[in-house]
């Protein structure tokens, strides 16, 4: 006998697959077990008991005398019998008692086998085997999608992820936190009525109507103190689960093989059910207890007609009716399954009820095989889908990332990264993190926050704890801000720096920072967009004083005009893109500093000459060759700084003498060959940079610059210095390196305030000992070859080496 346990291989191999078996599959499995037992029981009886018992038929004699001859023929045709004993009352009557056939056991066995094969209906013979085969086919159909390679791998992966998602501590925390505090309090009141007798009310006295997590067992609902104990390992495991779910969703949503496989196996079961019902109903009557057997074996047995008894006919008849009942129920269940499959769209799954119940609004709907498996899961337990949905939510993922981030970046670790920036503020730089740690807002001494290459930054209301925060830098960051945080920044933020890839990435809340004083915008635009670049209105930036735009715009944005009345400094770094429209400059009447860097300007813009309040002008890295317009600068009475460096200027016009208010002048990195003596009539100059040109001669009129403190002619072709240079007794920095000088005048000792001297790269053979009179000059401030330094007297060398 074959044990029933041997057929377990036809059912699912993994107990975890039960979550994908709805009630009808479980019910049909039990029906299959019952039908299997019928088949096994029938097969066992067939094997262990006699199948059929046959006896030869005997012809009965007639009651009247006229039939004596027929009886004689019948008797003659059979084995001779003993002569009958006549009765006293009726001598012609034959009395039959204990008839013997003279057949041995082997002949009976032969007759039984012949009649079983020839006379018994095939349905009566093979009924239990048919039951067994049909049942095994049903079981195979029910579980085929668990075994088929194209579907089993997806199912195994899904079950593995589902179990981890269900058991993850993060699932419980997300459901308790994201659904809102009101929901959690409502659950706590329901479970702890003895501790709370009041009901929380809304802002206007109405009850807070929040969906509670009723379907989550109490063991899964924890308070925040417990949920907050999520350790680093659990956080990393949950993070890995999010990635697995994303990849699995992309893979499974591509096709519907699972749905198609399940539909096909269900259709096959229905077809098989109809076939079984049809032929079994027609043939069940063929199972009879008495069977007439007519086989031509008279030569071997002496008999031709037999009467047989099918020993199991009565039992098989009952079993067949029972089997038909089971099959009918099985078939009706399969028909219901088909109705369920086609009545609703199972290739689409909506988490609407989960979104409403939990408050997690960003859970996406899914499709194809992913949707079908979730529908199957719901038939087992909807709680699985709810807990699985947590790992489809971007909000939940961001909260997990935030938790892991807080564990990794503690307040003490962040304090170690504090440094002083260019504005002399205490700055915290954070680069390429997964988010903004909440622990940042515990560093109350923070003055500047710099965020670089951080996606999905959310600035919470807790930023209000940073009372000293004045500066914020956002470099390639996408930022969202809480309304309370925005109110705080409007009142406290003084400096904002934004680095972007597209103007459209600028944070919209930037335009409402009414106390903002400095705004720095850095970003590269494509040439197609730059021609039509627009900024939203800056009129709300009432306190803006400094505006810097580093981009590739072709004109000054119109929005800048909104702040022209109070703008004091504007910088445009254009990365080589030609700036052609500068008429808006005329409206900036209070502008004191202007930088037009790398704007491909060929002439000094005429709009600049209208800026009567201008004090500093920087035209670095343009394409200036001639500066004849410089004469117009005489109307700018407040102009003190003029930087025309890194251009292609070949000469300085004599009109330069009219710029008597100049204090700082830079012509470095040009192509100037001759210095006009009129240049030195600008007697207020304190800073003069003529480095990296082709100058060969320094006019003696340089001695007129009695206020000169910085003078550089580095990398020119000067062969000698005029003695009048040493009349500039306030000189502190003198750079004459990389020229063709051969002698350094002893009069250099007159420069008592000289603290920095660069003479390296000349043809000096000796340094004058009068350098010792420059008491402020130390070895660190003297740039010279070591061998040349050794030519100084030892006492002077020692003097310079002492601090």
From TrEMBL:
Membrane topology category: Multi-pass membrane protein
GO cellular component annotations of the record: endoplasmic reticulum membrane; plasma membrane
Catalytic activity: taurine(out) = taurine(in); 2',3'-cGAMP(out) = 2',3'-cGAMP(in); chloride(in) = chloride(out); iodide(out) = iodide(in)
TM segment ranges: 30-48, 126-146, 257-279, 321-342
GO annotation (BP), single: monoatomic ion transmembrane transport
Keywords for the protein's UniProt record, in alphabetical order: Cell membrane, Disulfide bond, Endoplasmic reticulum, Ion channel, Ion transport, Leucine-rich repeat, Membrane, Phosphoprotein, Repeat, Transmembrane, Transmembrane helix, Transport
Superkingdom: Eukaryota
SMART domains on file: LRR_TYP (SM00369)
Keyword GTP-binding included in the entry's annotation: no
Compositionally skewed regions (Polar residues) per UniProt: 191-209
Entry's family note: Belongs to the LRRC8 family.
Identification of the protein by name: Volume-regulated anion channel subunit LRRC8C
Originating species: Orycteropus afer afer
Gene: LRRC8C
